[in-house]
Amino acid sequence: MAEPHDAIQTLQADAESARLNALYEYHVLDTLPTPSLDELTALAAEICQTPIALISLIDAERQWFKSRVGIAATETPRSVAFCAHAIQQTEVFVVKDALADQRFAHNPLVTQDPKIRFYAGMPLMTAEGFGLGTLCVIDYKPRNLSPKQLRGLETLSRQVMAQLELERHTTNLQNTKVEIQQLKQQFIEQDFFNQQELILLNLGNQLRNSLELNTILQTAVNEIRNLLKVDRCHFLWCMSDGDQLTSTITHEAKTPTLPSLLDDFSNQYGSFLTTTISNQALLKIDNVYANTQLTAEAQAELIRLGIISELVLPLKTNSGQLGAIVCSDGHGSRTWTDREVQLLQTVTEQLAVALDQAELLSRSRATALAAQTQAEYLVKALQKLQQTQAQLIQHEKMSSLGQLVAGVAHEINNPVNFISGNITYVASYVRDLMELLKLYQECYPTPESRIQAKADAIDLQFLTEDLPKLLASMEMGSDRIRQIVLSLRNFSRLDEADVKPVNIHEGIGNTLLILQSRIKATSKGRPIRIDREYGELPVVECYAGQINQVFMNILSNAIDAVDDCSDPIITIQTDVIHCPDFDASNEEQVACTPQVAIRIRDNGSGISDNVKQKLFDPFFTTKPVGKGTGLGLSISYQIVVEKHGGSLSCSSVLEQGTEFLLQIPIQLPTMPSRI
């Protein structure tokens, strides 16, 4: 928290800053003497009978004398000024004898020249209460003022303040008049400049938004006429006609009451303009009657057309085309300013660029069309290449996986056959031994002590009961391994031809067998119920290994979809789609091949429409990084549609589940490509 002394100093500093701002608003410091103020200063000296009288203004570091009587100095330091004390008062500040006053006894203005002994100063106060300075009187000897003199000093100080206020208002008024005049001139200049910028902006927009030449030229003549306030503005083309040049007005903007020069373009006027354009020389005619450079024929033609003043700016394109912008007026003499000429020169440059761009446009359109066609072809080729590359990678991975599965199945099959084949003999041997043991027990009901001890040690009764069960369990496990091995071999289909009639239900069953570990328990520990709603299907001619790959991809996604369900269910439904009876009289009917339909439906959370649109795109996946490549469904789509001439679609309802519908012809059609 600030100390009271610091707070007082802060308030004083703020007050002094406000006082100085008030003083500076009068713009009176360091100005020339003012006769009216000098008269008031002299009157103060006369009334108070003192040799010195001053109008003193207190600045930040000094006191400056606006008016003075009886002293040559123009200012003194504020630190020694009597007036610095007086401005802190509200009435006359009087020092009768400076040597007897402790505040001023050692002041250099007292001890040295001018050796002040007496001082009386009336503060010059603004209406807001700020002390700007004083009207003061000074003497070299001690004395005092009478009441009449004090009242006179107060009255004169108010007159001084009124005069300062008057001068301030006069100065402000003069400054305001100057500022208004300057602003008016700036406004006029800025308005013309803005109009110039506007026409250039409009033309620039035309160049950017349209390369239609007629639109650009008509906009140019309209905007120029509006800007320069002329009767006519037109654009000419100067073209070669054999060995001669001829000019033709193509675009015009004019006052509605004037006749159009498009219909009245005489040879004399055309010849006059053609000469100017071919020379590429600027032509300014302020007054046709006073221009000595015109021929008599040209002068007469301009007068006939009602043209008194005219400005012609030729242009030339990069391809050599000649033209010109012509502005004309018929109201009297007109001096074409450098700014107007500069504006029109800028416009002609813009038009020349427009002409060049229009010509380049016609040349580039064919090239752009060819380039666009080539780019589209390259984009499609790149997409096809990326898809083919992804398919080859996936196909190679599946082929390698199939070979690995077939090899492992073959290697497992041999020892399993050995075990399975010997279990039968082991079971027979065990039965014989058990029967022999039973005969021994019947013939020798009381065995020796050592035999009885061993029987008790091995729990003979339990062994004879459990051993047949153990052998039956081993036989069951062996059969299970054989089934798994057979499913792996059937899934890989490496021992069969590429295209072969296949039992679709067997392929689905083999796939489910491979996925059995995931079906038995989800990540939440819940088993997945598989509902099979199989119809009567014939054998289907297809690439069995690839169709199994499709089943694997779709069923794996279904298992992922129901991973969080409280009662996970996957339904597999199959049936045959027969074609309607073919009617030869119905031209709109298209013959079709019977197909099998496989619907794989889950009761998961479903798929949104946005995701469903991208479902079969290569590399698109909603699974976390490392959980999926985004190729499974894309490859499945290629296998079903391009490889087998079928269809693969998906329908889904959020929070209800998803269904994939796979349709393939029963008889494989001839396809143009192979994956």
Relevant terms:
675 residues; alpha+beta; Beta-Lactamase; 4 domains; six-stranded antiparallel β-sheet; five-stranded antiparallel β-sheet; 16 helices; 18 strands; flat
What is the tally of helical segments? 16
Please give the domain count.
4
Question: How does the major sheet shape up?
Answer: 6 strands, antiparallel
- DSSP summary, beta strand count: 18
CATH homologous superfamily assignment of the largest domain: Histidine kinase-like ATPase, C-terminal domain
% residues in beta strands: 15-25%
Please identify the structural class as seen in this structure: alpha+beta
Side-by-side strand order of the widest sheet: 3-2-1-6-5-4
Mean pLDDT: 80
Q: Could you tell me how far the N terminus lies from the C terminus, measured between alpha carbons in angstroms?
A: 85 Å
CATH names the topology of the largest domain as Heat Shock Protein 90
- Runs in which pLDDT lies below 50 for 5 or more consecutive residues are none
CATH structural class of the largest domain: Alpha Beta
Task: Please bin the fraction of helical residues.
Answer: 40-55%
Shape: flat
CATH architecture annotation of the largest domain: 2-Layer Sandwich
Question: Nearest-angstrom radius of gyration?
Answer: 56 Å
